[in-house]
Design a protein that fits this description.
By secondary structure, this protein is of the alpha+beta class. It has two domains: 294 residues, no CATH class; 126 residues, Jelly Rolls, CATH 2.60.120.380. The protein is built from 13 helices and eleven strands. The strands form three sheets. It has a four-stranded antiparallel beta sheet with strand order 1-11-4-8. A hairpin with a 6-residue loop joins strand 6 and strand 7. The chain is elongated and about 80 Å long.
Length: 468
Amino acid sequence: MILAALTEAALKEQHLAAILLVWFIIGVVVAGLLWPRGRGRKLARQVFALASLGFREGLRLKTLWTVAVISVIPVLLAYFSSADGTHAGRARLILNISLACAELLGTSLIVLLAAFSVAREIESRIMHTLGAKPLPRWSILLGKALGFWAIDVLFVGGLLLFSAVLVRAVPLRAESIASSALTPSGDWKHLTRNALVTRKWDLPANVEDTTLELHPGECFQNRFTVGPEHIGENELAMQFFLNSTYMFSSEVPGVGLKVGYEGEKPFIDRVVNAPQNHTFNIFLPRQEVSRPGTLLVSVISPSVDQPRVVLWKKFSMQLGSVADGFCANLFKAFLLLVLQGWFLALVVTGWSGVLSFPVAAALGLLLVLGGEMSRGAIELMQSNQVVAKDLGAVSTDQDLAKKVEHVLNNILLLLPDFRVAGGPATFVEGYVISGWTIAEAFFWMGVVRCLGWALPGVLLFQAREVGK
């Protein structure tokens, strides 16, 4: 009954892939229980023994420890650097570098292990001994893949745990400059509350989705409703995303920002140099936002000698309340990295029984690069299209761009999308990684695409004359 209720609730939110993942797992468990008595447990022990052998083999390789040392060095350098001089900047730098190392070096490590092991055992005729045993060929490859995946899980988990310890130690070092007025992070309490959480962002109601160019001194206002659910221990935040008529500048100088209850004096009234084409936050003190009401948020364009502000009426201002804390976000990033490792471990191991070591390693790297490049190309085409169109920087005829984007999206349906759910580092920028999105990623990438890429290699290995 509980599962049926959860399924019905999820269907209302249209999380079909997540539901299919749950039922896929249930199906696997039921199939294992219905397996002929004794045979299923014997096969499970055999797969576990092969996974243990693969895990111990990976631990003995110098490649693992070399990669581990290489990954730790940049994270340590990030901790001892000054970054932007604030605790928030140093913490984000540590997380960005550690997640990049976990993704880049973790995928390289598992590709090398998976491509090297089976191909080497075939060349050294060790596989002839395994092939002569009463073992299904697919169980040999599955056991190997699980062992290598365990190596990747250990590597990624250790690196993220190390980075979490360094982030916790960030306030032990003094800031070289005062905390940013936009992101106060002088101690661990401020750091976790302002810089290391993700927030749920609410858009203003009844506002059209168009762009607006503010003339010098002109003001644009949006209204946000503060309800009882927003009043709590954690601070609310206003997120801004602004551009200017100087499209290639990194900042929009002299932008005025005001926040306050409608009909009252603003409790935030400041002039900032706003990052262009990047989101930034202003945190609203709890003592100021302590009751339900309507917040009036204003953006004021700078003086005549400055670039004009360009904004989206609906999306350039958003009100955010805390969704996930630091530990929850780091765990979700860990899950996405583990998903990447599982895909590569199973696919490359499946094909390493057919291809030589260099070709199998190249296949793994091509899968990673193909997915990354396709996603990057789509994001590049989608970025700033509305602003560029309104400013006359591009043609209004977007038919060709839409066709190219459609083709790239179809290619991405075949390739592994390692930026699914925004990628492991998306929470560093303040974006929420939904649990439903992660479940859908595990179904489409960890089950459907993974089996689609691995099965041909497994079937070809089944037919290969090894140990017969």
